[in-house]
Amino acid sequence: SNGSRVADFCAGLGGTVRHLAHKYGADVTGIELTPARVAGAQELTKRVGLQETARVIEGNVLEVPLADASMDAVVSQEAFCHVPDVKKALTEAFRILRKDGRLAFTDWMANEPLTADDAQLMWDGMAIQPLHSISDYCHLVESSGLRVLSVTDLTDEWGPILQERLAMYQRLREEARQAGTPTGHDAFHRSYVRFVELIRQRKLGGIRIVALK
Fold first, then answer.
1. Would you write out the chain's pLDDT as a tens digit for each of its 213 residues?
2. Which pTM was predicted?
3. Other Cβ atoms within 10 Å of 130 Cβ, number
4. What's the Cα-to-Cα distance from 66 to each of 129, 170, 203, rounded to whole Å?
5. CA-closest candidate to residue 184, choices 197, 168, 199, 198
6. Going by fewer Cβ within 10 Å, which terminus of the chain is more open, N or C?
7. Is residue 111 within 8 Å of residue 136, measured between CB atoms?
8. Radius of gyration of the chain (CA)
């Protein structure tokens, strides 16, 4: 809501940060590890005139540069799968949230453990850490001190979107190939194809968790 202080963990180029500031009038701080992305995010934010209420700062979600109990909400989109210590990131969310503050995040999860080969492929192609099951994720959230309010399985919703994205990526690769330009990262492509297949088989899926401090 208007004036709510929100932190976005792993903010990337700040799309979510700007969306929340623009649509809800929230004051949003994104935390992003990569300096180039931070610079890009700041540039885009300035370009749309939201720099008063939206910013992306350089930082690690395992050691968030924000004060205790300083935020009304923490959000994260499809990013914890790249974080080496999710428990630590969740503990940081707990620390910076005020009493009754909310955490809301989406991520990929595993309905069954991946084979060693698939896990390696996901790491090589998309820097995806070992994925958690739904019950593991709930346990991680609760063990950081937060109370789980809702868990939504997004697999059916995300599956078709992913397949469309993959088809688009493959079209672009083919156009690049025909034009004789580099077709992009092969390990990424291989892992993406397999990822979509695993989602279709429901071995992997998407999840949204909302929790309260």
1. 678 999 999 999 999 999 999 999 999 999 999 999 999 999 999 999 999 999 999 999 999 999 999 999 999 999 999 999 999 999 999 999 999 999 999 999 999 999 999 999 999 999 999 899 999 999 999 999 999 999 999 999 999 999 999 999 999 988 988 988 877 778 899 999 999 999 999 999 999 999 999
2. 0.92
3. 11
4. 25, 40, 36
5. 168
6. N
7. no
8. 18
Which tokens go with 193? 């194809």
Rounded Cα distance, 51 and 74, in Å: 19
Residue (of 16, 20, 22) closest to 5 by Cα position: 20
Structure tokens at 25: 């009038």
Element (H, E) at 74: strand 71-77
